[in-house]
Amino acid sequence: MVVILLGPPGVGKGTQAVRLADSVGWEHISTGDLLRAARRDGTELGKKAQAYMDAGELVPDALILELVREHLRGVAPEAGILFDGFPRTTTQADGLALVLAGAGRRVDRVVVFDADEEELVRRLAGRRSCRDCGAVYNMHTSPPAGNVCDRCGGELVHRPDDQPDTVRRRLVVYRELTEPLISHYEGMDSLVVRIDAGRPVEAVAETFRQAVDRGAA
Ligand code: AP5
After folding, report:
1. Where in the chain are the domains?
2. What are the tens digits of pLDDT across the range 111-165?
3. Cβ–Cβ contacts within 10 Å for residue 20, how many?
4. What is each CA distance from 203 to 4, 121, 197, 199, 209, in whole angstroms?
5. Span from the CA of 72 to the centroid of ligand 1 (angstroms)
6. Which pTM does this prediction carry?
């Protein structure tokens, strides 16, 4: 099964995607995580992506599609896949459809998370991420026990693109370029399920699980 998780910055895509993929043994593909790893490793792609990410703009489609194609080469042909934060433009959606068709697969479900903009801004202001293992915390709702990562002891950082001005830009970019994908998929007869992600983590997790189970063959 191939599932796409769409939603604005800070809505909880990463939080829920990690939980679900871990529990069902699917491949979790987050283009944001792949880009941050490329930046940490100092690759050419990481260098090219840096300015776009720090400004809250989308990284060009061609770079993203190459990144995803490369990553998919290491994924078993029958593996369940949960895409998190990809695709974000219709060009990326078309590119993904082509790659999947080449493997005899298609997008089975599109799950859309949404929440009030005020809540998104609050979550991003409180988010802290581990520089080493990527674990995500929230200073208001799920703080670490101390000043370092509970899981690995790594340093906790406030992502540079979580600064208020950049968050505002990311929200505009989402509404202009990514939200139209919802009607794109509805028009292709894909099963689109919308979830109110402004609720507590456990409640969202339960609804997300049900939405995905309904599509499991
Ligand atoms: P990316 O890292 O994908 O950022 P994003 O989509 O903006 O999503 P976030 O990671 O900010 O939020 P999230 O929804 O995962 O929320 P989280 O679970 O962390 O992309 C970053 C940049 O990379 C982009 O701006 C772009 O430049 C580039 N990029 C990436 N993919 C691209 C693509 N396909 N094309 C082009 N460019 C691309 O939760 C947020 C906080 O809230 C956390 O603190 C969490 O603990 C807390 N939280 C989560 N759920 C709840 C809840 N239910 N209640 C209370 N708190 C909660």
Report:
1. 2-216
2. 999 999 999 999 999 999 998 888 999 999 999 999 999 999 999 999 999 999 9
3. 22
4. 20, 20, 9, 6, 10
5. 21
6. 0.95
What residues act catalytically? 13, 88, 127, 159, 170
DSSP state of 13: H
Is residue 9 within 8 A of residue 88, CB to CB? The reply is no
> What angle in degrees, to the nearest 10, is found between the helix axes of 90-102 and 180-187?
40
Alpha-carbon distance 106 to 98, whole Å?
9
Q: Give mean pLDDT, residues 19-42.
A: 95
Query: Which region, left, alpha or beta, applies to residue 195 given φ > 0 means left and ψ of -120 to 50 means alpha?
Result: beta
The finding on whether 88 has its CB within 6 A of some atom of ligand 1 is yes
Q: What is the biggest distance separating any 2 CA atoms in the chain, rounded to whole angstroms?
A: 48
Q: Which CATH superfamily is domain 2-216 in?
A: P-loop containing nucleotide triphosphate hydrolases (3.40.50.300)
